[in-house]
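DM from R.C. (forwarded with permission)

"hey, sorry to bug you on a friday — could you get me a structure for this? deadline for the figure draft is monday and I only need the backbone to look sensible"
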Amino acid sequence: MDAQQIPNAPEIIYMEDDLSEDELASLYRACTCTLLPYRGEGFALPPLEGMACGLPAIVTAGGSTDDYLDDSMALRVPFRRRFEEGMYVGPHSSDPMPWMLEPDLPALIDALRWIHDKPEQVQERGQLAQEHCAAGWNWERSTMCVRERLNALFPQSVAPVNATHWTTKPVKMTKRGTTTAAGKKTVKAPSKLNLSLCMIVRNEEARIRECLQSIAPYVDEMIVVDTGSTDQTREIASACGAMVYEFPWCDDFSAARNQSLALAKGKYIFWMDADDVIPEECGVKLRSLVEQNLSLDMAFEVSVRIPPGAGETGETIVDHVKIFPNRPDVRFEFRMHEQVIPSLRRANIEVLPSEIFVVHTNYDRSPEGQSRKRQRDFRQLELDLKDRPNHPFILFNLGMTHLYATKEFVVAAQYLRRSIDSSHWKDSIVRKAYALLTTALMSDGQIAEAVAVNERGRTFYADDGELLFLTGQLYQQVGRFDEARQCLNKLVESKEDGYFRSVDTGLRTYRGRLELALLERNIGDYKRCIESLEQIVSEFPDFAAARIELDITRQTMNSR
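My reply, with the result:
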């Protein structure tokens, strides 16, 4: 347009004149993209017009534009659904409670910056958008759809028309049941979607194929939201039959996960990470569980089993709510260690246990990977803390991160105390917070205070494995050997109760029994200690700590 040639032209031009078709097309072609951060109202025709003129679009995800574009030709901005009470359309009240989509401002800014910084990729998306429109989003196609519907309703009442039926070109808008750009057939989509897989990924080319292949037979659609991969993650996911969408990373895991939920069409959601694999028997149980509860709104725990790393013995089990109904009021919260439980509670949706588990494989334990993770974790936690300075879950995560990542025991203890003081003892994080606080105090040498905190925690959680294990260690340090033995015997003889676990499975077996053996050594019963250690080594030959302590005990006994 002429404005582009005018020095110091205004940044915004408000136009209220009627434009001819040629003028309108000329206006679009003078632009870099179409921008419509709308709230979900109407069909939203301007982005489609812009696509026909070769422009990518920036739009709010979750609205009507989802019908005609995807992330291969547009940037879809995440949103929060805002419910309004008492809204009226003229004299008519809205029922059910109406809502609007509130686009995320930081993500919108990131999308605009991406358009500015990547002109070649912008042009590529615009070309895909234009090809997609030319393949069928035109008046000829609209007329054909109307005629086909009228012919179905009133056979032989509508005159035939010589028009070519709509054929979709194999662009990057890949969905299950279609042909991909590579010409490979994917699984045919069922007529009714009961279960949607939702994932967020970034640079997961080494893991995502195994993950998707393990879950594909048991879900009706696979939604993969990519937050900025620079490898082959998107291509591999698409080849596995997933619908792949791009999402500008905004330092918020919940925002990305909620974007995947907004795209899902199944009755139930099941979410995984790219380094998760579901065993076949658990996939069968997952499908059966969902189909048995289609008429209900229930949520279910799924255990995440983390295999031992190099030099480790047992696995760690962490319970997550991974199965829940696909409802607009069920969404994740918190930038890091994102949780869906708060919204489930507000919606009065019951969470039940299940026998299903996934295996968390290929965890990056390298120093470089852990360093990147620490930097990201602290950045996101500080942002969360700024938004909600006294939230117990954020304080809990800050305490845990300072304890394990930076070994700042005093700082960790301060955050964990604040978390406990702000929580109800029935909250799922509190028992773990007591164990972490006890560990932080022990590590800082505050043994008496650690004993007091531990004993207070056990007034609420008398059978908790971590607290019992720590009690056995603490009581030995202060000479309370009989009480230490009682707690450690209780540890190895009892089982975990039904709650959200995040626990080393070895606590109630080889680690607990090792602590009992060391107790015998501390009170001078070397013979009994050696017998116990020999039995542990026999049953758990990979448990190196038991072999080392056995050698030390034998040497000490022989030197006496």
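R.C.: lifesaver. The CA atoms of residues 113 and 280 lie 44 Å apart.
me: no worries. The chain is about 45% helix and 15% strand.
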